[in-house]
Amino acid sequence: AEASAYIERICDEHKVRLDYVSRLIGLDEPATSVAKTQSSKPRSQVPNVYSLPRYFRIKRYVDLVLVSILVVALLPVFVAVAIAVLLDLGSPVFFWQRRIGLNEQIFQMHKFRTLKPAFDWRGQAVPAQERISWIGSLLRKLRLDELPQLLNVLVGDMSLIGPRPLLPQDQPPNPSFRLTVRPGITGWAQVCGGNLLSPVEKNALDEWYIHNASFGLDLKIIGRTLLVMLGGERRDPDVSELVEAEETAPLRRRISGGTVHNL
To answer: What is the pLDDT of residues 112-155, one digit of tens each?
Structure first.
């Protein structure tokens, strides 16, 4: 049942038609997967009537300049990581997932693979603790598995800095505001605690970033991202304050009857 649910979820994510012999010959239909049930949950829809900082008008150009420099500078690292993954886990070296981005558009977010297959050659589930190798663990710790997302930035699916893109089933109850901007490779929530934060805290910090985005703040996030890569995640002592301020702030940036332009 677990293997069936996993296969159904993957096929559903990649829009691959999946059928069963039992259904083709008229037997009972298999149970609906958990992933489909989660993805069908209704979400509250709020029109895009938010005001964004002026910085977002030029942010795409900033991304293109910085990413072009990074792709050239990090090309040797990119090649070295690809070879390490190939030797450790085999082909393919990339992993991709469907995520929701700007204006609720679904795109494929890419990473370097860090996990072994979920099932062995006998179809038996591989325990989670056995799926990641020491190379995969190192890539995650240094955030090098995120390097392929530079290509997502180049094609316009993502930004260098912004809310992390979430799986369709992991969206907050009202995701409309966070989806008015491109998702980022790194972001305010990631440098304020990352996995040490709750989903509610992450979403509040992501919304705080959108309200306060600026070139100076992006540079600060880039600097703190380097510190996280070298020293690991640490929960910012001011997180609770920032979250409370964001949750109690009036919606002063909402424009009645207005719309957010495509970025």
So the answer is: 999 888 887 787 888 878 888 889 999 998 999 999 999 999 99
Element (H, E) at 106: strand 106-112
Q: Are the CB atoms for 146 and 181 separated by under 8 Å?
A: no
Q: Distance between CA 123 and CA 149 in Å, rounded?
A: 31
DSSP code of residue 42: -
CA angle 129, 133, 138 (to 5 degrees): 110
Report CA dihedral (187, 189, 192, 198) to the nearest 10 degrees.
-160
The reported pTM is 0.74
**Residue pLDDT, tens place only, 64-86:** 999 999 999 999 999 999 999 99
Name residues whose C-beta falls within 8 Å of residue 137's C-beta, 6 or more positions apart in sequence.
114
Give the contacts of 247 (CB within 8 A, at least 6 positions apart).
Answer: 204
User: Three-state SS for 166?
Assistant: strand
Residues 6+ away with beta carbon under 8 Å from 215 = 55, 62
Tell me the sheet residues that pair with 186.
161
| CB-count exposure of residue 54 (10 Å: 0-12, 13-18, 19+) | exposed
Distances (CA, A) of 102 to 49, 116, 163, 182, 187: 14, 31, 10, 5, 15
Within 10 A of 237 (CB to CB), how many other CB atoms are there? 9
In this structure, the strands spanning 94-100 and 106-112 are antiparallel
